[in-house]
Amino acid sequence: MERHIQAPITKEEAKKLQSGDYVYITGTIYTARDAAHKRMDETIHRGEQLPLNIENEVIYYMGPSPAREGRPIGSAGPTTASRMDKYAPELLDMGLGAMIGKGKRNQAVVDAIIRNGSVYFAAIGGAGALLSKCIKESEVIAYDDLGTEAIRRLKVEDFPVIVVIDCEGNNLYETAIKEYQRQ
């Protein structure tokens, strides 16, 4: 099914999404990759506040290339989500609404998605230049010293993703393989 949603994403909206749905996101999302996740984890464990309130927010695992003249961002393709698996359950337990990346997630992340009524989306790997056209604004909001791995606030319009793991734990990567093997 094709759906259009607003970000940040509410738990009610996340519950409507099903594994395999094509979704177009409009609104505000944030970028964070390995180094930013590590720094957020250190911040949490020092008992300090994160540089953003992650309640219902969407984090896109992406580090952009430099923007060309007249563009807010360069190529903006997803990075491998499993590299954030050691950090994701805690962020989900703190209220993170959704994640965008590519590739499989471990069982602890799947369990946290279910426990928190969240969702994991996949963006198309290798299509960073096309995805960047859906990004209307980009602003570094934290960890500027990390360069491309800084946390950015993005304003997106009809940003295309696919629901991989829905809030019930249905996993497109598993169901698609089973469906393919039956044919």
Describe this structure in words.
With 183 residues, the protein is α/β, with parallel strands linked by helices. The chain has one domain: Fe-S hydro-lyase, tartrate dehydratase beta-type, catalytic domain (fumarase), CATH 3.20.130. Helix content is 27%, strand content 27%. The protein has helices spanning 11-16, 34-45, 88-93, 107-116, 128-132, 172-182; strands at 2-7, 22-31, 58-60, 98-101, 119-122, 135-142, 151-165. It has a five-stranded mixed beta barrel. The mean pLDDT is 94.
Short description:
The protein is α/β, with parallel strands linked by helices and 183 residues long. Helices cover 27% and strands 27% of the residues. The protein has one domain (2-182): Fe-S hydro-lyase, tartrate dehydratase beta-type, catalytic domain (fumarase).
Outline the fold blueprint:
Layout: E1 2-7, H1 11-16, E2 22-31, H2 34-45, E3 58-60, H3 88-93, E4 98-101, H4 107-116, E5 119-122, H5 128-132, E6 135-142, E7 151-165, H6 172-182
Parallel strand pairs: 1-2, 2-3, 3-4, 4-5
Antiparallel strand pairs: 2-7, 5-7, 6-7
Organism: Dorea acetigenes
Family: Belongs to the class-I fumarase family.
Protein name: Fe-S-containing hydro-lyase
What's the assembly state of these chains? single chain
In CATH, the topology is named: fumarase
Number of domains: 1
**Shape estimate:** globular
Query: What percent of the residues sit in helical stretches (DSSP H or I)?
Result: 25-40%
- CATH class categorisation: Alpha Beta
Reported for the largest beta sheet, the result is: 5 strands, mixed, barrel
Strand order of the largest sheet: 2-3-4-5-7
* Rg calc: 16 Å
* Proportion in β-strands: 25-35%
The second-level CATH architecture is Alpha-Beta Barrel
Structural class of the secondary elements? alpha/beta
H/E element sequence: EHEHEHEHEHEEH
Q: Kindly report the average pLDDT value.
A: 94
The count of β-strands is 7
Q: Counting H and I runs of at least 4 residues, what is the number of helices?
A: 6
CA(first)-CA(last) distance: 22 Å
CATH superfamily: Fe-S hydro-lyase, tartrate dehydratase beta-type, catalytic domain
- Unreliable residue stretches: none
Domain Fe-S hydro-lyase tartrate dehydratase beta-type catalytic: 5-175
Protein name: Fe-S-containing hydro-lyase
Family: Belongs to the class-I fumarase family.
Organism: Dorea acetigenes
